[in-house]
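Quick one, tokens below:
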């Protein structure tokens, strides 16, 4: 039997090799290089069929475009906003067989015989090969266009492929997988793929696309509509460098108000002003930390009219009362409009609906609706003005932009397909909608006021959406263990796709029963995971219509509140990490490949992650589990709950009783923990407990500003650098840099050198190892 199997396997190998050789021969005959010219920004190649252009943007970013014409056409750019680059040194060397473009970090080798492109680092290590590119004439939505495809050879057998947005199949490593990039509820398309081999490919196309790696050494990247094959090759080799290059191309992520990093209370849905205010009051009465409450859909009379129904008799008074209670309010707004209002008639007359497309389906219970055309810049301004006049002007703080795929439920395809948009074919631009509609709201609010930072919760996103101050969420997911497990790799792939802010409906959207002990366990585990998501938000449909922390019984409430308290004690750490996102293109929710890329064992770990630079988060994903089987990467680690330390590069079974999710802190970490808070701006972060985890050198920069508004963009902020020298056993708190109105001139730092049963857990340490007064000048504390 073994012999027969081996023979069969041999035949298959021979067949595959023959096919590969035949295909290689076909490509070489098909499209060789016939000439090239170097110019100021790169090299343009004449091919037997078409033109290939490689522009050197930086020493680690190469822009490739290929077209079937003699000059590369200029296409309008909606995603990439970086359109000029400083000159970067590069050389071009040619042989009879190749033309090589070299920068300080990259060698790009173009083979004359077939036009294949080998990307290598400066040492000559192979990264990946673009074997060939094709443009196939097609007619799509009445447009004569091309189907674009690149065929890529992947070198590294342990290489992992990640990113591509957010998808719900539960897959973490896309090696050997195929991923369709099309916007829909619970799936988000972002055409950035990153590899543990040290590179990323940003596929610059907004039509439906696919990254197909089912045959593990070959990757087919294709799009349905294109004028050119267009992508950016991004060299790291570290993931943070690749993500930073992506944001250089598509835009930085602004800071949210400090309140946005606190707890978000939400359910489907609050039905009246009295109910909403009653929940906010009870949070304050119970002293449970919270900053935000959310009004979900059907607060209106007609969708799109932005007029509160009779259950909200005094919207302005409601908002004012919430603000007095130090709550921020987010409200749900949709891109859909129902007939019967003056707004609908006006937009219809102006031609601002998508081909006057209307649809009807449960649960909307309406005869028809229309989605506005967010590709029309005038319609985007009009849409924001509706929000501004009715909602922003009464003080509402944040925007829940629901169904911005736009809505795909009840049908297989996105509703933009086969329609004409203001910018062209819906098929060509189908994935752009969430970028454009959130961009209209972001720009509108920035123009209206610089006193309140934009926060948008968006059910979908696209490349570049991070510049619009969006947090994406994972959509209307089910309330069960399998769905919960799938959220973790979905969120991690989204994070490494370059968009830093993400969240889920803690507990799932459909449907949970807070009176069911089994569901309570799921909710606790999901809540623990949510505590360490970039944005900490609960939401969902519950059978008893209750979804507050006290809805799950006193024992569960105690656990939930403890993790809520932990989130707020970590606010100095979280807010400082948010500044790194904005200032350094950092990533908050960090799959292990970001910090331990060369550790082969982390390539397939998609259910653990770093929260910032210090904290290893290990969600409990099995019902009834009291331990968590998990991997500790190579480092020295401290158990957050006990202070005990242990070495990594090992699988362990960590204790995980219901009230505890395993958390470990990497040696060399400095974690500032603030005082107990009920909301983020309740009082200055003083005193701050600084927990030091010895065993390696470490750095941390404590960032502070006014907490809201955009003066930080003008330099109104302060940074206090900290450094732990493990050899000298000293903590240096450096000179403060910068200032802002309301800054504490003097403050107290309580230093704790963490060890077993010392400096562990949520509560403040009663007896710190050192207490120092700091007035902005450098001080050094010896252990």
């Amino acid at each position: 039997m073994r012999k027969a199997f081996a023979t069969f396997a041999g035949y298959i190998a021979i067949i595959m090799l023959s096919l590969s050789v035949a295909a290689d021969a076909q490509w070489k005959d098909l499209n060789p290089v016939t000439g090239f010219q170097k110019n100021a920004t790169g090299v343009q190649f004449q091919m037997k069929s078409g033109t290939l252009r490689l522009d050197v943007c930086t020493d680690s970013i190469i822009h490739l475009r290929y077209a079937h014409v003699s000059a590369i056409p200029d296409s309008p750019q909606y995603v990439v906003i970086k359109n000029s680059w400083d000159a970067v040194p590069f050389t071009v060397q040619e042989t009879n067989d190749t033309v090589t473009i070299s920068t300080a970090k990259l060698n790009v080798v173009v083979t004359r015989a077939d036009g294949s492109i080998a990307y290598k680092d400066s040492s000559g290590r192979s990264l990946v090969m673009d074997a060939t590119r094709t443009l196939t004439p097609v007619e799509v939505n009445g447009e004569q266009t091309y189907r674009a495809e690149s065929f890529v050879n992947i070198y590294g057998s342990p290489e992992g492929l990640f990113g591509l947005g957010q998808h719900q199949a539960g897959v973490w490593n896309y090696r050997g997988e195929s991923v369709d990039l099309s916007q829909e509820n619970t799936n988000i398309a972002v055409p950035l793929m990153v590899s543990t081999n040290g590179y990323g490919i940003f596929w610059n196309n907004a039509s439906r696309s696919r990254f197909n790696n089912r045959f593990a050494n070959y990757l087919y990247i294709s799009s349905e509509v294109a004028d050119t094959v267009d992508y950016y090759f991004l060299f790291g080799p570290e993931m943070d460098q690749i993500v930073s290059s992506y944001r250089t191309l598509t835009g930085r992520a602004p800071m949210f108000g400090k309140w946005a990093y606190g707890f978000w209370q939400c359910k489907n849905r609050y039905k009246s002003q009295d109910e909403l205010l009653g929940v906010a009051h009870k949070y304050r009465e119970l002293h449970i930390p919270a900053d935000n409450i959310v009004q979900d859909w059907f607060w209106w009379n007609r969708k799109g009219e932005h007029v509160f129904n009779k259950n909200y008799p005094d919207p302005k008074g409601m908002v004012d009362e919430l603000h007095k209670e130090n709550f921020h309010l987010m409200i749900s707004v949709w891109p859909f409009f129902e007939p019967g209002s003056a707004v609908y008639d006006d937009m219809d007359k102006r031609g601002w609906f998508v081909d006057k497309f209307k649809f009807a389906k449960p649960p909307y219970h309406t005869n028809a609706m229309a989605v506005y055309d967010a590709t029309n810049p005038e319609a985007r301004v009009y849409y924001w003005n509706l929000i501004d006049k009715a909602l922003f002007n009464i003080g509402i703080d944040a925007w829940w932009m629901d169904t911005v795929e736009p809505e795909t439920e009840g049908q297989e395809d996105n509703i933009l397909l086969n329609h004409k948009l203001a910018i062209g074919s819906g098929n060509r631009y189908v994935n752009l909608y969430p970028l454009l509609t959130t961009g209209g709201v972001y720009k509108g609010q920035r123009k209206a006021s610089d006193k309140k930072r934009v926060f948008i919760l968006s059910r979908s996103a696209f490349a570049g959406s991070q510049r619009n101050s969006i947090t994406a969420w994972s959509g209307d997911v089910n309330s069960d263990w399998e769905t919960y497990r799938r959220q973790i790799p979905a969120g991690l792939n989204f994070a490494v796709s370059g968009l830093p802010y993400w969240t889920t409906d803690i507990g799932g959207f459909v449907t949970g029963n807070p009176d069911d002990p089994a569901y309570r366990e799921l909710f606790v585990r999901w809540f623990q995971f949510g505590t360490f998501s970039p944005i900490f938000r609960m939401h969902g449909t519950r059978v008893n219509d209750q979804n507050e922390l006290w809805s799950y019984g006193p024992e569960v409430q105690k656990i939930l509140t403890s993790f809520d308290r932990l989130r707020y004690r970590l606010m100095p750490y979280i807010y400082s990490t948010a500044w790194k996102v904005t200032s350094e293109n950092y990533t908050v929710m960090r799959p292990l490949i970001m910090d331990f890329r060369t550790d082969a064992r982390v390539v397939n770990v998609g259910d653990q992650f770093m929260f910032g630079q210090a904290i290893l988060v290990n969600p409990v994903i099995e019902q009834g589990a009291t331990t968590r089987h998990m991997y500790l990467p190579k480092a020295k680690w401290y158990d957050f709950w006990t202070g005990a330390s242990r070495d990594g590069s090992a699988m362990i079974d960590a204790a995980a009783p219901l009230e505890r999710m395993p958390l470990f802190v990497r040696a060399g970490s400095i974690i500032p923990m603030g005082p107990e808070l009920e909301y983020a701006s309740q009082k200055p972060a003083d005193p701050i407990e600084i927990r030091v985890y010895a065993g390696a050198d470490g750095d941390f920069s404590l960032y502070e500003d006014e907490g809201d508004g955009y003066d930080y963009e003008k330099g109104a902020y302060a940074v206090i650098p900290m450094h732990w020298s493990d050899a000298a056993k000293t903590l240096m708190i450096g000179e403060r840099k910068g200032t802002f109105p309301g800054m504490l001139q003097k403050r107290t730092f309580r230093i704790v050198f963490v060890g077993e049963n010392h400096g562990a857990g949520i509560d403040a340490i009663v007896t710190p190892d050192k207490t120092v007064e700091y007035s902005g000048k450098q001080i050094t504390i010896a252990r």
